[in-house]
Recover the amino acids of this structure.
């Protein structure tokens, strides 16, 4: 293994000396902001305009740390003579971050894209009760939600975009054929008029 | 009158060096150790790269309660830190920094004085270990005693070799007699002296007496506040003294290129380099086991020291 006695000892000294000349790996966190990876799980933001009070998030939460109160309102019929509709109105939406384990199930399960991850993580409190973020605070976190990271160059096209593109292409094709038929039809009546 | 003033000035200078140099070594250790481990070390105290960290530590230690355990031997317990610290101050007086009497007090039997007094420092740890009335402290104290027994001998042998080479035991005399070819000649002796000195200071990798994973902090387990700080200070003062002594005995003290009026600078530079090596060794090597510690002293260092003495004697006879 070691041809010269003391070879290993010298090697150890070399390792520490080399490490000393390299840049240290310490991040000076409070002085320098950390470089967080994309999709960092800091805090959960609520886009309450999208919330329909379906309660899926509260029911799926393993920690039961989401509190939702709501009431129903009746909406007058859209067209005269129609039926009155009822609508859920959100009264309270709160997440207790002292219980939350940042599993993200609520965000995964939300069918209406009302919950989002935000990378903000500096919301420590001296009183544990302050960690229950109410609706307005959760709405404020929404402003810190970053745009989703771009897809990989070779990634499959997102389904909704693919669907939207297909619809748009179909519509365009239909309009084109309609336009061609229309010009064909338009020329005939013009002749008739004349 | 001027004689008294001269003595006072010298003593004040030695005291200032004694208070400043260990702190410089300690701060260097903080920083060097951190960077060798890929860290930054203290960054806040004092503003610029944590230069005042040890001052802050000192303030913290001074504020802490000074506890003496109920079962402890009060007097001895309280005296131990002073016993372990003061010998290094005394040794520092006798170490020559530059030529032409740039020394606290030139002592004819300087080498004897220095080695004898350095041995006293270790007694502080033994006193602390015995007086603490704590089994971990006692274990640490006994390990210290065993280490002192084992490592004092190679240290004396190596120092004796230099004294033989120079034909004097006065420290300034030894440096005066130094020639560059002494370095290869006394190389083995120098290594033995430095290693044994490290062991006597209980510096890693020879820190079995304070092995924190086994016996908490050895003899210092029961100490708090300022007395604990004095023990730590003694360790760093010991590093300064050991490095300065190695410089004086084996590296030629103030000798060096362009040493005309900057001889003292050469002594300081060599001492600082050795102190860096002490820190470097601490970072690099794991702690030796107690039996390995004893084995290294009795089967490696002492034979090497004896061989060095034989070599010195032969060369001395040949050249005279």
């Amino acid at each position: 293994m070691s041809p010269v006695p003391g070879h290993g000892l010298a090697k150890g000294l070399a390792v520490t000396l080399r490490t000393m000349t390299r840049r240290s790996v310490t991040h000076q966190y409070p002085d320098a902001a950390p470089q967080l990876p994309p999709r960092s799980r800091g805090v959960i933001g609520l886009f309450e305009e999208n919330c329909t009070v379906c309660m899926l998030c509260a029911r799926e939460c393993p920690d039961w740390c989401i509190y939702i109160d709501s009431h129903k309102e009746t909406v007058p019929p859209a067209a005269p003579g129609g039926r009155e509709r009822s609508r859920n109105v959100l009264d309270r939406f709160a997440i207790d971050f002292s219980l939350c384990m940042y599993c993200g199930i609520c965000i995964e399960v939300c069918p209406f894209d009302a919950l989002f991850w935000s990378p903000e993580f500096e919301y420590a409190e001296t009183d544990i009760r302050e960690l229950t973020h109410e609706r307005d605070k959760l709405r404020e976190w929404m402003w810190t939600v970053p745009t989703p990271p771009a897809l990989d160059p070779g990634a499959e096209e997102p389904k909704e975009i693919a669907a939207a593109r297909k619809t748009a292409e179909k519509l365009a094709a239909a309009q084109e054929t309609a336009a061609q038929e229309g010009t064909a039809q338009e020329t005939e009546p013009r002749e008739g008029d004349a | 009158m001027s004689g008294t003033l001269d003595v006072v000035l010298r003593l004040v200078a030695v005291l200032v060096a004694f208070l400043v140099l260990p702190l410089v070594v300690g701060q260097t250790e903080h920083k060097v150790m951190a960077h060798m481990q890929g860290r930054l070390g203290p960054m806040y105290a004092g503003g610029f790269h944590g230069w005042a960290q040890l001052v802050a530590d000192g303030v913290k230690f001074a504020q802490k309660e000074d506890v003496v355990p109920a079962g402890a031997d009060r007097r001895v317990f309280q005296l131990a830190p002073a016993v372990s610290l003061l010998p290094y101050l005394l040794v520092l007086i006798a170490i020559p920094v530059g030529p032409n009497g740039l020394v606290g007090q030139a002592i004819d039997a300087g080498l004897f004085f220095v080695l004898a007094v350095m041995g006293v420092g270790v007694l502080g740890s033994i006193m602390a270990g015995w007086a603490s009335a704590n089994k971990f402290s006692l274990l640490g104290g006994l390990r210290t005693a065993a280490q002192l027994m084992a490592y004092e001998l190679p240290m004396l042998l190596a120092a004796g070799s230099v004294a033989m080479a120079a034909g004097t035991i006065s420290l300034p005399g030894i440096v005066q007699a130094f020639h560059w070819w002494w370095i290869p000649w006394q190389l083995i002796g120098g290594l033995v002296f430095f290693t044994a000195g490290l062991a006597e200071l209980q510096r890693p990798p020879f820190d079995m007496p304070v092995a924190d994973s086994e016996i908490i902090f050895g003899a210092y387990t029961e100490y708090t506040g300022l007395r604990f700080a004095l023990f730590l200070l003694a360790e760093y003062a010991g590093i300064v003294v050991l490095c300065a002594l190695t410089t004086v005995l084996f590296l030629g003290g103030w000798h060096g290129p362009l040493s005309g009026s900057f001889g003292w600078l050469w002594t300081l530079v060599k001492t600082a380099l050795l102190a860096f090596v002490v820190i470097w060794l601490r970072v690099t090597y794991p702690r030796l086991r107690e039996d390995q510690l004893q084995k290294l002293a009795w089967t490696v260092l002492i034979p090497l020291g004896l061989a060095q003495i034989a070599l010195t004697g032969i060369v001395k006879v040949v050249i005279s």
